Amino acid sequence: MCPSCNMSITTRVEHQAGTMTLILCFFVSIFVLCCDFTKDVNHFCPICQRRLGTYRRPCSSRITFIILIYLIILIIYIILLAMSDSHHYNG
């Protein structure tokens, strides 16, 4: 039931990039912008077009932990790569 027009409706949804989407895009891949499951969801009345609510995807501690592990592995890999390049003898 829409509180604005008092009609019995099924909401129209629109997906919008939120905090979780941007974090995943920056640390994982730009392709998460194509996936709706990472985006926030806005609900609208299809009759009066009023926004009825927003579901914001939680940026859970599990996702934060995975991103942190990914960054640590990436930094270790870059350090090891730099160390192996500096120990080559070209004489």
From TrEMBL:
GO cellular component annotations of the record: late endosome membrane; lysosomal membrane
InterPro entries: LITAF, LITAF_fam
Gene Ontology molecular-function annotations: zinc ion binding
Entry keyword Cell inner membrane: no
Chief location category: membrane
Alphabetized UniProt keyword annotations: Membrane, Metal-binding, Transmembrane, Transmembrane helix, Zinc
Transmembrane segments: 20-38, 59-83
One family name in Pfam for this protein: zf-LITAF-like
Domain LITAF per the UniProt entry, residue ranges: 1-57
Keyword Transmembrane: yes
Its membrane topology: Peripheral membrane protein
Subcellular location: Endosome membrane; Late endosome membrane; Lysosome membrane
Classification via PANTHER family: FI16602P1-RELATED, LIPOPOLYSACCHARIDE-INDUCED TUMOR NECROSIS FACTOR-ALPHA FACTOR
Family: Belongs to the CDIP1/LITAF family.
Designated name of the protein: LITAF domain-containing protein
Organism the protein comes from: Acrobeloides nanus
